[in-house]
Amino acid sequence: MSRPKPLVAAIAVATIAATALSACSSSSAKKSNGGGGGGTGGVFTSIDANNKITAGAPMNPFNAAPNMFLGYNEMQMGFSKYDPSDPNAMLPGLAASWTSSDAGLTVQLQPNAKWSDGTPVTVADIKTSLAIAYTQGTAGPVASAGGTVVAGSNFEVSDVKDLGGGKIEIDQQPGVKNLYFQRLVLSAYIVSDKVYGSQLPADIWSQIAAVQGSDQSAAGAAATKLSAEGKTIAAFAPAKDVSAGPFVETRVNPGEALLDRNQYFYAANKISPKQVILRSYSGNQQIWGYMNGGELDYAPYTSMPTNILNQVLGAGYTRMDAPSYVSASIAFNEKQAPYNLTPVRQALAYVIDRDAVTKVGEPVGGIAAPTTTGLVGSQSDTILSGDQKAALNPYKPDPAKATSLLQGAGFTKDSSGKWHLPGGAPWTITLQTVNGFSDWIAASTIVANELTAFGIPTTAAITADFATYQKEMAAGKYAVGWWLVALGPQTDKAYARIYGSADGFSVSNGQATYNDSAPTNWEHTPQTYTVNGQSINPGQLAAQLSVTPVADQQPIIAQLAAATNQELPMIQIWNYTHVMFTLDKRFTNFPKTGQDDLLNNPPGVWMMQGYVQGK
Amino acid sequence: MATATATLAASVRSRRPAWAAFRKAVTRTPGRLAGLIIIVFFVLMGICGPWFYGRLAVDPNALYAPPSAKHWLGTDFAGSDVLQEVVTGARYVLATAALSALFTSLFGVTIGLVAGYQRGLTDSVLMRLTDFVLTIPGLPLLILLSTVWSFGSPWEMGLVLGITGWGGVARAVRAQALSLRERGFLEAARGLGLSRRHIIVKEMLPNIAPYATMQLMLSMIAFVGAEVGLFFLGLVPFSSTNWGVMLNQAVFSGGAMETPAALIYLLAPLVCILLLTLGIVLFLDAIDELFNPRLRERA
After folding, report:
1. Cα gap A607→A614, rounded to integer Å
2. What is the rounded distance in angstroms from the CA atom of residue A287 to the CA atom of residue A524?
3. Contact B205, B161 (CB under 8 A)
4. Residues 433 to 462 of A: which have CB under 8 A from any B CB?
5. Contact: B137, A9; criterion CB under 8 Å
6. Element housing A534 (H / E)
């Protein structure tokens, strides 16, 4: 007899998933969602799209996939407003206020800031948390040991001093000038010294001093030790959650995480929900199902077609939009011919109809990229002058121009309408995307169709998972594939997605060095471009951005935008919009569209500011 | 000696013309005939379907359009014709299932026959190998292999499904072979000094063939379900349109379980799978009679 094991297993998986889902639904359905306020607002139900519930994972924010949820039980001294005009602008968290200076930062902790075990938040907690940041590679030169440091991504604290009365001085490493020190320090995870202190060696700050020192050998040895200690910290599983946030985690099961109100939270009177339930999910359609049933009080955006959007709105949800600062693009590996030719990339840009692709791939949460600059439209529109914007080529669909560019580069078209490379070989494209990225997959269908219709047979190929995709892309395996650019409102970080480690540039203190054979370089663009008759080094310009105050960045960004628009190391297809939904049924007083500083943060942060009250 | 054996075999195999027997078995009930028609329909769809269609057209202005004269089954997430996708997607599904079944039958029958006839050390070695194959978890193996292969070609998935699926067939065929080798005509063949290869291929295989054919068709049902299930669950990447991909995109991207917009996109491949399974099951009834003398006599 044949033995259809895959079928049986597939059915088993589906059955288990269905059982788990139904179990999850029924358990949640039993909980009351009654109204109220000031701690009597019932149960606030949501999902955390950034941090899925992981069965068995520790309640430790330094774990790679922890059961910790930002703004609820995972706390920072401040929460970024994601303001491109001032990346250091923060909403208060455990820090009530702060003053910044060249030497560092002075922070005033929230009066009455306490952990959920009733003990106060002290300088020891801050000091331990910032030391842990070094072990996790998010601070200082330890991060650069991995070879992927981007200035502005890491902070360099040399000391933490108790000034008394809840005031703390946090010193920046002498000689280092990080423009974003304030934001990076305030947005570090803060954990209890009582819980985590014992996980650190007594000489942790001596190790940090050695890492920051001029003795290269001692610095290297200390970095290695810190890195090893980081692994211990990441694996640490506290017996229970001790949180300084508005909620504390009571229970986690594969279906949901249950968080109860932290009675010791410094602004407990502002927190309306008595409980928060964060539902588990395995795919977008589950979240759509929750929303159709009116079960979520808040839902972050998940890729959806317009028919689902209409249904969700019909179920009573209110849509809110905020800037996203992320752009989906099609990137090229210029080491693989013919993508080393600028006319080829430009021709492809003329063939791809970005409006049509966006309509299919990201109809609700995407706006067709008006042009390729390396930044999202709202950023480049604000920063560039009218003349500079007018000089950008939008690459509106124009097959004639594409044909002309290709013919000029020596490409030929045969009698069946298919293009051939200058050497005569047929030209085919494999457009790589990732399993599970439904918007990229759907969009690839359209792009492949458009390119095939133009005479370049194109196939959309799918990599099993994102980790494999990143690994294979870094190894230069893909000639053409999807890539996210403009990650975040910080312009130097946005350009680092193009002219950073993925392109052979290594940045330190505002200086870029280039290595075409760097292991992470899969783009392989030239080190310099000639734009408007002037030779520029995009990696160096991107590095300069990291040490240039926002107010002075415009001329650099203008050069980078013009170069990116001309050379197209990648074609921006759509800019994402941060879409989210709230249900005004059990809770009210949600932030509204326009309150970008709040909307770019999770609902726990809204609650700290007094939003989200029971009805 | 050879003449005597041939006569012996021919007397078993040629009691009545094969075509007439086949026609009689198939036409005995309307269900069997319907089964054959359905199978032929899908085989023709798999072979000829893509010839009738050109490139899959997309229309971003007609996403999830309802059925119309232009699009009999409406359109999908990209405005592509669902009927065209069902027809062109059949080839991958059927080819993969056929290849899987072929590999299963090939490996299972060969190893089962040799083990059953040879017995002794050969039997032990081959059965331990079979036990090993039976323990291979097919699903995790496919997921693992999906990091290496895109499964864009039916050969790749057919090979993996077939290689992990022949163990049961081998065991069953071995049992049949053990029984057969004690029959008189095989005793006679051995007594006549015929070669081992001749006995296995010329004498035993024809007697196992009906059973193997049944297995081949039954395993096709299982393999269609397996491959479509894998694509539906998104456990393997995909680079071509087929019924499993349609199910996946209808549910996970189109919201077919939440809104009716993508319902036809979901139902179209489901109905095809259902019909194909039904066709095979109905037709198997005829095959069963064809190869089972007792059933034939009763009828």
Report:
1. 11
2. 40
3. no
4. 435-436, 438, 441-442, 445-446, 449, 452-453, 459-462
5. yes
6. strand A534-536
Distance of alpha carbon B97 from alpha carbon B42, whole angstroms: 12
Question: Within 10 Å of residue A217's Cβ, how many Cβ atoms?
Answer: 9
Assigned token pair, A591: 């932030």
Q: Which of A97, A103, A68 is nearest to A189 (CA)?
A: A68
* A222 touches B at CB < 8 Å: no
User: What CA–CA distances, in Å, run from B102 to B41, B47, B115?
Assistant: 20, 17, 20
Rounded to two decimals, the ipTM of the complex is: 0.75
Position of tokens 């905020």?
A322
Residues 6+ positions from A285 with CB-CB distance below 8 Å = B251, B252, B255, B257, B258
Annotate A132-191 with DSSP letters as a single string. Answer: HHHHTTSBHHHHHTTT---TTSSB-EEEEEEEETTEEEEEEPTT---TTHHHHHHTSEE-
Residues 6+ apart with CB under 8 A from A190: A75, A76, A77, A94, A121, A125, A126, A129, A244
Residue of B253, B266, B232, B229 whose CA lies nearest to A443: B253
String of DSSP letters for B103-116: HHHHHHHHHHHHHH
DSSP collapsed to 3 states, B7-27: HHHHHHHCCCCHHHHHHHHHH
CB contact under 8 A, B139 and A10: yes
- C-beta separation of A298 from A580 below 8 A: yes
Distance (Å, whole) CA A591 – CA A581: 11
- The nearest alpha carbon in chain A to B239 belongs to A461
CB A204 within 8 A of CB A144: no
Strand partners, A78: A92
Whether B259 and A311 lie within 8 Å, measured CB to CB: yes
Q: How far apart are CA A525 and CA A486, in angstroms?
A: 18
> A123 is written with which tokens?
């300088």
Chain B residues touching residue A436 (CB < 8 angstroms): 234
Contact B64 A307 (CB under 8 A): yes
CA angle A483, A461, B97 (to 5 degrees): 155
Exposure of A352 by Cβ count < 10 A (0-12 exposed, 13-18 middle, 19+ buried)?
buried
**Residues of B with CB below 8 A from A289's CB?**
257-258
Q: Are A198 and A186 in contact (CB under 8 A)?
A: no
Q: Digits of tens for pLDDT over chain B (299 positions)? A: 444 444 444 444 555 567 787 888 888 889 999 999 999 999 999 999 888 887 788 898 999 999 999 999 999 999 999 999 999 999 999 999 999 999 998 999 999 999 998 888 999 999 999 999 888 877 778 777 776 776 778 888 888 888 888 888 899 899 988 888 888 888 888 888 888 888 888 888 888 887 888 888 888 898 999 889 888 887 776 666 889 999 998 998 888 988 898 999 999 999 999 999 999 999 988 887 777 666 655 55
Cα B257 to Cα B129: distance, rounded to the nearest angstrom? 44
Distance CA(A335)–CA(A331), nearest Å, equals 12
